[in-house]
Design a protein that fits this description.
Radius of gyration: 20 Å
Bound molecules: pyridoxal-5'-phosphate
Strand order of the largest sheet: 1-9-8-5-4-2-3
Order of helices and strands: EHEHEHEHEEEEHEHHHHHEEEEHEE
Distance between the termini: 26 Å
Number of strands: 15
Number of helices: 11
Largest sheet: 7 strands, mixed
Helix content: 25-40%
Low-confidence stretches: 189-200
Mean pLDDT: 83
């Protein structure tokens, strides 16, 4: 299995490893599966769509969204024809609360905050502002499945919270919306309307993840980093496919449900944390890349946080991505910037380094 055999290439997405299959977990004991008001979907953007419909959002309603955000979040808002207003984030990716307040208007109905890369945002402040201005709070926890702030799971302070399991563990698809408020109906709009494509997407998943696993074991793609264009480095690139919710209207696949019950989540979380610490040490020891200083976005990993990636800020992102791919590390930019968001401090600087499989960094870099 992958964790015992030596990876010759580190994948950007979770692949099947020894944390799968040898375990039987009871999902009913695990947050958010133990929530009574949870609805499962294939993708978080559809979970978000469903949640927004249940919250009563309709055409013309104003929603506040951080300016540093991806198409996947904006797609359902465009679908519902909401009016999106962007607020600023600071250099630690925290909401700039003054900018939030400045953007609130009489037409604002909802504030969306993001737990970037599995790290908690200030939910208490967000809640205070929402209560004070009588707007709904959406917690985008797509990066934060398994992650906690202290003893509290992420995804518990929004009126609704969304999850994307497939970003943290190797499943064909899988996402959820949790209604943290009482009295919101429980039948999933998208789930009820679109029962498409299960077996096809599951088959594709096995073919694709089997191939990726093999490629990583053999190091096949090591010298063929995709052109940056394919990593969506260009914010003005046409990304209609991702922008269309119709392409993501899948229910959660039965295979995903099956796999989720066979993953050793504790071990998986701990491996992600160890990998994160390894990256911190690595960049503490070499804090320059091609003559320019690099910045570790969050050098401290609070206990309980299960990271989605290790985010690093570099001046020459394109060079680093190309170089690391060549050395077997599949790093990537985030987000795939939508055409209608503004450029900011992070644009073209942030690189995500993978933490989803356990490996020794020194086996790949800095030889
Ligand atoms: C912060 C955030 N929220 C939501 C999504 C949408 O997730 P999914 O790809 O499962 O629809 C993404 C990814 O695209 C994301 O990065």
């Amino acid at each position: 299995m992958v964790n015992v055999m030596k990876l010759r290439q580190v994948p950007r997405d979770p692949i099947i490893g020894t944390n799968h299959f040898c375990h039987k977990s009871n999902l009913r004991d695990l947050y958010p599966f133990n929530e009574p008001n949870i609805l499962l979907f294939g993708y978080a953007r559809i979970a978000l769509l469903d949640g927004m419909i249940k919250l009563g959002l309709k055409e013309g309603d104003e929603i506040l969204v951080p300016s540093y955000i991806c198409n996947g979040v904006l797609a359902p808002m465009h679908y519902l024809k909401l009016c999106v207003r962007f607020y600023d984030v600071d250099h630690e990716l925290r909401p700039d609360w003054d900018s939030v307040k400045k953007n609130l208007s009489a037409k604002s109905t909802t504030l969306l905050v993001v737990n970037y890369f599995g790290f908690p945002t200030d939910g208490e402040e967000a809640r205070k502002i929402c209560d004070c201005h009588h707007v709904r709070l959406i917690e985008d926890n797509a990066h934060g499945f398994l992650s906690r702030s202290g003893s509290q799971h992420l995804g518990t302070y929004g009126d609704i919270s969304v999850f994307s399991f497939r970003k943290t563990v190797c499943v064909p698809n899988g996402a959820a919306v949790v209604f943290n408020e009482k009295g919101i109906p429980s039948e999933g709009y998208a789930d009820a309307c679109y029962r498409l494509g299960n077996s096809r997407s599951s088959l594709r998943f096995f073919a694709r993840s089997g191939m990726t696993t093999l490629q990583c074991l053999l190091g096949l793609k090591r010298y063929t980093a995709p052109p940056l264009k394919d990593l969506c480095d260009d914010p003005y690139q046409d990304q209609n496919e991702e922008y269309e919710v119709a392409n993501y209207l899948y229910p959660i696949s039965p295979i995903s449900k099956h796999l989720l019950e066979r993953i050793d989540f504790d071990r998986h979380a701990s491996e992600r944390q160890q990998m994160y610490q390894q990256w911190v040490e690595f960049f503490n020891n070499r804090n320059h890349y091609s003559g320019e200083k690099v910045r570790i976005l969050w050098p401290d990993l609070p206990s309980g946080v299960v990271p989605y990636v290790f985010p690093l800020l570099v001046k020459n992102r394109a060079d680093l991505i190309r170089d690391y791919w060549r050395q077997g590390i599949q790093c990537f930019p985030w987000p795939f910037l939508p055409r209608d968001s503004r450029e900011n401090y992070f644009t073209k600087r942030l690189v995500c380094l993978p933490v989803n499989s356990y490996f020794r960094i020194s086996d790949f870099l800095g030889k």
